[in-house]
Amino acid sequence: MAFFFKKKRDDELPELPPMPPLPEDEGMEQGNFPMDEEAAMPPMGLPPMPPARMPASMPPPPMPQLQKPMGLSETATVFVKIDKYREIMQMVDSMNTKLEDLRHNLDKISAIKQKETEIIQGWNALLSDSKTKIDELNRKLLRPGEA
């Protein structure tokens, strides 16, 4: 019945001491480090591989060429289940009817906007006529202080 008891961990690691602070240098700004010769050299690793030299008597390997399988034409036939085809056609028809409805609604909105523009232009004309009549009336009537 030892399946349900917790194991005691004897292999826990002790805490590490804190890291020492970095030396401060007044000449170095953040991200602006001096470049010395060691830093300018590429990282050491494996040396580059020398170019492969083939003996002069051996010809280069032939490049494989893609060949068309026999019996296939340029256009491949795609087989689709009839049910899927009917679903696709119904979706396309539905999209066409929705586009026609949107075009019809847009035409209605354009006609309404045009009527609104005509009404607003009529009101502007009526206001300008009223303004000119009031100005004319003010000129014809003499005011007692102005005479």
SSE order and pairing:
Blueprint: H1 37-40, H2 82-140
Structure, described:
The protein is mostly helical and 147 residues long. Helices cover 43% and strands 0% of the residues. The protein contains two helices and no strands. The N and C termini lie far apart (122 Å). The model has no long low-confidence stretch (mean pLDDT 78).
Keywords:
single chain, mainly alpha
Summed up:
This protein is mostly helical. The protein is built from two helices and no strands.
| Global mean pLDDT | 78
Rounded to an integer in angstroms, the radius of gyration calculated over CA atoms is 45 Å
Q: Report the principal-axis shape.
A: extended
Structural class: mainly alpha
The number of helical segments is 2
Uncertain parts = none
What is the N-to-C order of secondary-structure elements (H for helix, E for strand)?
HH
Tell me the β content.
Answer: under 5%
Alpha carbon gap, first and last residue: 122 Å
Extended strand count: 0
What is the helix fraction of residues, given as a range?
A: 40-55%
The main β sheet shows up as: none
